[in-house]
Design goal:
This protein has 581 residues and is mainly alpha-helical. It contains 34 helices and no strands.
């Protein structure tokens, strides 16, 4: 047996790393056996249990430079990308395949339709529908898989009229076809028709039952979902996870935990769902306890726990876990979700040094800068004062949504760039994007920093036009705005008009304004309320003492200082968005 034959023999019966594949590929090229390249491509993809950008790039290179291109290997590559959630990559390969003059296989066409469904890419799916007719991929045999994928595409896009027509015209229907219709009606929110389809399905499988359970769970009807669960002839992980997820969304974390504990076996989705449920209700410690119990943690589990810490204002723990994930002993490569959560944690800490490292890491590992990542990064840079860098990312976004505009407006607001914040707010409204509560915090902060009282008050009163109810924080900013401008009586009247109990921050803003304008009478009122709410801090007494001193009321100054010394009150700690240098 010569060297080439030995290599090919090895190729057929073992898993290949990229390094080993390159060695085999070199032998194939040296000996002129280019017809074996498609076989090599299939073996590389079969060897890759998880998606790897390195593997994908190498396979794409082989396909593009092959002297013996074939539809089968391209179809395998398209299917591999689609199965691992790389939908844009899968569709790009499908287009490139045809530029080589290759006719798509049923695998390629089905995977491309799945990709269009997941991306909600209607035009792409319609083009493939035309190819189905052109190439005759319909009817019995392999055509059933393509027809079912096409049916699923229309169902996922919510075009149930076309889907129903296709379904009725299908020569052969299988359980997947019925399940596609069922899922389509459920996604469209038509639970009644979905129930009818479920009842008519001749042979229900576990997916049929799971779909109905999930449908009722999403509708908040956990009683019916539970009844269906009890009737199921067989259950799988998805059945249990649907019930757990339903109770989590319903806000019943105890029932969710009860189902979780009753599971005969759990998969990673079960653990992730419970961790996310605890995160949603703010029970970080219970989420952390569950995370610690899992052996063989994967990317999904790390993502869930890092997000839990970041979303519940525990950024240091989020970054500590992120660092542990990168350690050689764990060595799990983060994805877009991991990086987004880590960036959010850094934003909370005001540490912008992480931003350039993230961008460098993404370039090294071929991670695409999607909208979520770019928005998280611009939020980090904006909060840390790097407005120019934030603007660079903002202008690079293909689609500027509410989150992106809000991050920029808030960043400009807290960094004293009022004109920029106002311009962005107007631009957002002109684009028919409705501001939310956080957007108004940003724009009101900008008005406050610029001293634009009338404009700020007009903005504040316009919140109801956007169905945003002012929170105590919005009132606090307005009190600060009136106070800075010396309109202390108006600030006090605004506090009195609040529909909720003002917290110490609101009264503290008035007290600070009284110190700025040396108003003893209102200062005493503000200080009294601050001390009633937070009696154990010395900062309010210090401000009131300074107000007394400016009015030369020395006896009151002495009295306050003696009280402070006797009680040994702690000072109010300072905070900053900026990292220490």
């Amino acid at each position: 047996m010569n060297g080439t034959q030995m290599m090919i023999s090895k190729l057929g019966r073992s898993s290949l790393s990229v390094k080993q594949a390159k060695q085999v590929h070199a032998v194939i090229l040296i000996h002129g056996h280019c017809h074996l390249e498609p076989f090599l491509v299939r073996q590389i993809l079969l060897s890759a249990s998880n998606y790897s950008a390195t593997v994908a790039q190498y396979v794409h290179s082989i396909l593009r430079h092959s002297k013996s291109p074939d539809s089968s290997s391209w179809g395998c590559a398209i299917r591999f990308s689609a199965q691992h959630g790389q939908f844009r990559e899968a569709f790009a390969l499908y287009v490139q395949m045809q530029s080589w003059g290759l006719r798509p296989t049923t695998f390629a066409m089905s995977s491309a339709l799945k990709t269009c469904a997941r991306l909600a890419y209607r035009m792409g799916g319609l083009c493939i529908h035309g190819q189905v007719q052109k190439f005759g991929f319909s009817g019995a045999g392999d055509g059933v898989y393509v027809e079912t994928a096409l049916l699923d595409f229309y169902c996922k896009l919510g075009d149930m009229e076309i889907a129903r027509k296709m379904f009725e015209e299908m020569a052969e229907r299988n359980v997947v076809s019925w399940n596609s219709m069922l899922a389509g009606y459920l996604k469209s929110g038509d639970l009644m028709v979905a129930q009818r389809v479920f009842d008519e399905t001749p042979q229900k499988d576990v997916v049929s039952w799971n779909s109905m359970i999930s449908g009722y769970a999403r509708a908040g009807d956990m009683e019916t979902a539970s009844s269906l669960f009890q009737q199921m002839p067989e259950r799988n992980f998805a059945s249990w996870n649907a019930m757990i997820s339903g109770y989590v969304e319903f806000g019943d974390i105890e029932s969710a935990r009860s189902f979780f504990d009753a599971m005969p076996q759990r998969n990673k989705v079960s653990w992730v769902t419970m961790i996310s449920g605890y995160s949603k209700c703010g029970d970080v410690d219970s989420a952390s306890d569950l995370f610690d119990q899992v052996g063989g943690k994967d990317l999904l589990l790390f993502n869930a726990m890092i997000a839990c810490f970041a979303q519940n204002s525990r950024p240091k723990e989020a970054l500590k876990l992120f660092n542990n994930m990168l350690n050689q002993s764990v060595n799990i490569q983060p994805d877009e979700m991991t990086l987004t959560s880590a960036i959010s944690a850094c934003s909370q800490l005001g540490d912008s040094r992480f931003g350039p490292w993230i961008e460098s890491y993404m370039r090294r590992h071929g991670i695409e800068m999607d909208g979520h990542l770019a928005t998280a990064l611009l939020d980090l840079y904006a909060k840390c004062g790097s407005i120019d860098k934030a603007y660079e990312l903002f202008h690079g976004l293909r689609k500027k949504d509410l989150v992106a505009y809000t991050a920029m407006i808030l960043g400009c607001g807290i960094n004293g760039k009022a004109t920029d914040a106002i311009k962005l707010f107007d631009e957002m409204v002109d684009a028919q994007i409705c501001p939310n509560s956080i957007t108004f915090i940003g724009i009101l902060t900008a008005f406050s920093h610029a001293g634009l009282v009338e404009e700020g008050y007009h903005c504040f009163t316009s919140m109801k036009k956007y169905n945003v109810v002012p929170s105590v924080d919005h009132y606090g900013i307005m009190v600060d705005l009136f106070g800075r401008a010396g309109r202390l009586q108006e600030a006090l009247e605004l506090i009195k008009s609040m529909p909720m109990q003002p917290h110490a921050g609101v009264w503290g803003a008035l007290l600070l304004a009284c110190r700025l304008h040396n108003n003893v009478e209102l200062g005493e009122i503000a200080a009294q309320h601050c001390l009633e709410l937070e009696n154990d801090t010395t900062g309010y007494r210090s401000l009131l003492s300074n107000i007394y001193a400016s009015g030369e009321r020395w006896d009151d100054v002495k009295r306050l200082r003696n009280v402070t010394k006797e009680k040994a009150f702690p000072k109010i700690p300072g905070c900053s968005w900026m990292e220490s240098t």
